[in-house]
Amino acid sequence: MVFDELRSNKKAQVLLGVLFGIIFGFLLQKGGVASYDVILGQLLLTDFTVVKIMMTAILVGMIGVYVMKAAGLVHLHTKLGSAGATIIGGLIFGAGFAVLGYCPGTAAAAVGSGALDALVGMIGIVIGAGIFARLYPRLDRTILNKGVFPAETIPELLGVRALFIVPVVAVLIVGVLYLLQAIGF
Known about the structure:
This protein has 185 residues and is mainly alpha-helical. It is 75% helix and 0% strand. Helix 2 (10-31) packs across helix 6, helix 4 (49-70) runs antiparallel to helix 9 (162-182) and helix 6 packs antiparallel against helix 7 (116-142). The longest helix has 27 residues, at 116-142. The N and C termini lie far apart (45 Å).
């Protein structure tokens, strides 16, 4: 099967990663979320462009992944999460977002559109990732595995098939998107 060959071809994986990264950055830029003003508007709850794009991406990705899984085209490789990892990740992400005003994806898109502040932020992201990688063995032993979640996915947690969860979540997302549009956001 072509997908099995692709999984074993590291060069093709890197090339596809770069290609899809460029497409992702282009779409973020076109969607307007690489703009500091749009992100600030989201944080001030005056512009919901970021939420709408994220929810649409979650909707499309969720449906796409589960359709591909049902067709046998992909195999999910999930990892148990934990409260420790979630808290540490949230603190690092939140601190970076608060200082820079971009998340990593929007920062990369902003760099692509020429934003100097985002370029400085991307340098900080690389330095921060290096520090985290250096501290990872110690963090993994002490904090990251504290409060391990009881399941890898929501369907597993609820003891039902994804076939039942995906449509419910899809309807909820579409409902929120419709409500945001209806109230003028």
